[in-house]
Amino acid sequence: MDRNTLDEALARGKAERRRFESLEYVRFSDGFAGIARGTVQLPDGRLLPGYPSIGRIQSLARGLRRQYAGPFWAEEKIDGFNVRLVQHDGALYAFSRGGFVCPFSTDRLPDLLDPTVFESEPALILCAEIAGPENPYLEGSPPQVREDVALFVFDIIRGADGAFLEPPAKSALAARYGLPMARSFGRFTADDQQALGSILRQLDAEGSEGLVFKGEGGGGRTKYVTGRSNIADISLCSEQLLDLPPEYFTNRLLRLALFTDELGSADAPALERELGRAFLQGLERAVARSREVGRVGHRFRCRFRQRRNAEHFIAHLEATAGRRVHIAEGSPHREGDYWILEFERILQRMTGTLANVLAGQAQFD
Amino acid sequence: MDRNTLDEALARGKAERRRFESLEYVRFSDGFAGIARGTVQLPDGRLLPGYPSIGRIQSLARGLRRQYAGPFWAEEKIDGFNVRLVQHDGALYAFSRGGFVCPFSTDRLPDLLDPTVFESEPALILCAEIAGPENPYLEGSPPQVREDVALFVFDIIRGADGAFLEPPAKSALAARYGLPMARSFGRFTADDQQALGSILRQLDAEGSEGLVFKGEGGGGRTKYVTGRSNIADISLCSEQLLDLPPEYFTNRLLRLALFTDELGSADAPALERELGRAFLQGLERAVARSREVGRVGHRFRCRFRQRRNAEHFIAHLEATAGRRVHIAEGSPHREGDYWILEFERILQRMTGTLANVLAGQAQFD
């Protein structure tokens, strides 16, 4: 990127200089002059392109026909958070979607990935999902990760052009270096409705989030989620009913109905009950918490290798979430080889509304 | 009301002159100088006070203690629309909450009410709920009205002061003239939790909407709804998921959880299933309609005694809902003694979103 573009972006507040330990980098907080939001410039001038957002289809048959004239690859969509991994000056860094160094992911990389690949391919960019019950960002986690977190590479950028490797080249490279990958289900065309339908029914039964489709030859990308992934989201977030944008829930309800409409449901009464319970159990939990401790929140727990990174993460939490976060007493604390961080995100609207309601106030609506 | 107040309200657009057939009246479209929204002034200067909105408690125990130091009356809350009935120049008129003459209600009064009471009490104002499956405004209807509509008086204003009669005086007057009334469950204090709890569990099982509490001696009024009335609302409105304010659904989910938290639920799995089905069946209906006819809507059917009133109502629909309403081909049509009006309210966001989704478009969210 030429010097003027960078200076103008900085001057206009579209980009900002950041520092993590000894690493100084520039992050694009907005799209600017064709540079995507989340793009990062490293000290040596290398650009880490912002990861593009992927369109959602909600009708498998019609969506695939409309989006793909030719073949596409189907890979598992992992319910985690998106990071881009790069090596700089012999150190590995994980950048968040927004272009910040993520202290948690960066700290844990030695546990999650064999770095050998970067010895022979120092300019590689790995795009990966970090997912699991002990992640500090998301309530959800995929069924195949039972504890802590795991990493799933789903895209690789090799050249300076910033283009993603085609899935076969990506798989070959991943196999050579033993990179943990998101499952690939192979190459399809829009005519393979039957095969894709049964893969999605299987993923739905397993509790997987769904599929990402990648057009061959750099074709477009789309995603399609399973019906049950919507119920899982509602179940995990129903105690945040008044704190999340209400569309969080209405969109998932509609997606669930569209999934069952198109792919059917093995047991409709069971599905209806799962959905009702997803709402009721979380809400009853929230009411109980409000009565017991006067507040409603969601608790997170994650582990760090280095105390210093836990402190970086706490600083980030306090900068972004402020009073809405309670760091647990005595956190981080040592357990075996790790520093355990526990904190609670306070759900302010649920806390306030339930406090008023349970105090007997009358609402006018 | 003095002339200046009226002139100023008219000048400021807080009130407007309206006409229904030969009746000319003034309607307050906003609160003004202590005059409530929905207040109506008749040609003889009589004032029809706007009906006050009633606060909702969502915790029975705490709510009643907080709202009522003394005794209160508990009456059934009817799931219908609110009208105020008056006689003027020997004719009966029904005014809506907003202060408009309702052509439907006014047309049907001879079927719904014995007008004898107005012969001996010409200045009486009856506040009533009109409810039933054949009403032109609401999707819902109470279990005790199996067809057409019925009328339930719940308040009576006798004096020029505009005060509501105390429940005993109201019941006595209603009994004398055989007025159809909302059920009264008697007089209670905040200590009668047990009794009120079992009444509400009974109402919940019957599918009734809930209770309205009226403090003795003109004390405050509050309402409390049953858990299942929330499921019924969701079930009737889930095909409007994207057209109603999303709070319509989130508020009802929270009320349901608060009801079961406080009053329990006979059969939790059944309740969970009812809730899930309430969402899924309506949404699947909407998806099916979109695929079949390319639009999603809610159909209404109601009957009129006089064709002219049906035409007044159609004019009102077209003025207020415009292109969002389709009057059925050949409506109103004669059936026996009535003119049947059928129309469909088009759900524009559901129609548009489902059309795009089912055409295979990708959404970025």
From TrEMBL, chains A, B:
InterPro entries, per database record: Lig_Pab1020_C, RNA_ligase_dom_REL/Rnl2, RNA_ligase_Pab1020
Any one GO molecular-function label of the UniProt entry: ligase activity
Residues annotated as domain RNA ligase Pab1020 C-terminal: 241-361
Pfam families referenced in this protein's UniProt entry, alphabetically: Lig_C, RNA_ligase
Keywords of this entry: Ligase
Coiled-coil spans in chain: none
Stretches assigned to the RNA ligase domain: 71-224
NCBIfam families noted in UniProt: RNA ligase
The protein's name: RNA ligase
